[in-house]
C-alpha cells in the first residue's frame, strides 16, 4: 500500500521542486488566500522573481502544484494497482489505499480541499478541478474494467459512473476527516464502498 508520503517529482533543476514543496506546505497549512508569493519565496529560499520565471503568478504556481500532485498520485496508484487481481481485492485495495493516503498525505488532501473551494469561485480553477476529477475517474474506471469486470453494479451504472462516485465519495470523507479534527472513525466510512460496490 501507501506506506510513505508521495513526493512531488520534477525532472528539472531543484528550484522548481523547492518552490512547489514550499507552496504545498504553506497552502495546505494556511490556505491559498493567506499565502503570498513572498511567503513561498521565503520558505523555498528563492527570490520572488524565480517563482514568476517558472510559474508567472500565484495562480500559475497553484495550478502547477495541483498538476504535479495529481501526477504523483497517478504514478503511485497505477504502480500499486498493477498487482491487483479480482473485484473483491480491487475494492479492498481501493479502500485501504484511500485511508492510508488521507492519513499519510494530509497536505495533499488539504490542497485538494482548498482547490475544490477555489473552483467554486474561479472559472480557471473550476475547469482545472473538473479535469482533475475527470482524469482520476478515468483511471479508476480503467482499473475497474480491467481488474474488477465482474462487479454487478457495472452492468447498470458503467465503470466511469462508479469511478466518479468513488472519487467524490473519497473526496467527501477526506474533507470530513480533515475538518473534524482527524477523527480516525471518519475514515471507516470509506469501507462502505465494499458494501455499495458489488
Features:
single chain, 198 residues, mainly alpha, Tetracycline Repressor, domain 2, 75% helix
In brief:
This protein has 198 residues and is mainly α.
Describe the structure.
With 198 residues, the chain is mainly alpha-helical. It has a domain at 63-196: Tetracycline Repressor, domain 2, CATH 1.10.357. 75% of the residues lie in helices and 0% in strands. It has helices spanning 14-30, 37-44, 48-55, 58-81, 87-104, 106-119, 123-147, 154-157, 159-179, 184-187, 192-196. Helix 1 (14-30) packs across helix 2 (37-44) and helix 6 crosses helix 7 (123-147). The longest helix has 25 residues, at 123-147. The chain is elongated and about 55 Å long. The two termini are 22 Å apart. It comes from Synergistes jonesii.
Strand and helix map with partners:
Blueprint: H1 14-30, H2 37-44, H3 48-55, H4 58-81, H5 87-104, H6 106-119, H7 123-147, H8 154-157, H9 159-179, H10 184-187, H11 192-196
Instruction: Name the overall outline.
Output: elongated
Give the N-to-C terminal Cα separation: 22 Å
Strand-residue proportion? under 5%
**How many β-strand runs?**
0
Q: Please describe the biggest sheet, giving its number of strands, its sense, and whether it closes into a barrel.
A: none
The level of helicity is: over 70%
Rg, Cα atoms, Å: 18 Å
Number of helices: 11
Task: Write the CATH architecture name of one domain.
Answer: Orthogonal Bundle
Order of helices and strands: HHHHHHHHHHH
Amino acid at each position: 500500500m501507501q506506506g510513505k508520503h508521495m513526493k512531488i517529482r520534477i525532472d528539472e533543476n531543484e528550484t522548481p521542486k523547492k518552490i512547489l514543496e514550499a507552496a504545498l506546505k504553506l497552502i495546505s497549512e494556511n490556505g491559498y488566500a493567506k499565502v503570498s508569493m513572498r511567503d513561498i519565496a521565503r520558505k523555498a529560499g528563492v527570490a520572488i522573481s524565480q517563482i514568476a520565471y517558472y510559474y508567472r503568478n500565484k495562480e500559475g504556481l497553484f495550478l502547477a502544484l495541483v498538476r504535479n500532485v495529481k501526477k504523483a498520485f497517478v504514478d503511485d496508484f497505477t504502480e500499486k494497482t498493477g498487482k491487483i487481481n479480482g473485484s473483491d481485492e480491487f475494492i479492498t485495495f481501493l479502500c485501504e489505499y484511500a485511508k492510508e493516503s488521507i492519513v499519510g498525505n494530509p497536505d495533499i488532501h488539504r490542497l485538494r480541499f482548498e482547490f475544490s473551494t477555489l473552483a467554486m469561485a474561479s472559472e480557471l480553477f473550476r475547469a482545472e478541478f473538473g479535469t482533475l476529477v475527470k482524469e482520476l475517474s478515468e483511471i479508476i474506471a480503467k482499473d475497474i474494467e480491467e481488474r474488477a469486470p465482474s462487479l454487478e453494479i457495472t452492468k447498470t451504472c458503467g465503470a466511469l459512473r462508479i469511478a466518479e462516485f468513488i472519487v467524490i465519495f473519497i473526496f467527501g470523507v477526506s474533507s470530513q476527516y480533515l475538518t473534524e479534527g482527524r477523527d480516525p472513525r471518519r475514515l471507516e466510512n470509506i469501507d462502505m464502498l465494499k458494501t455499495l460496490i458489488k
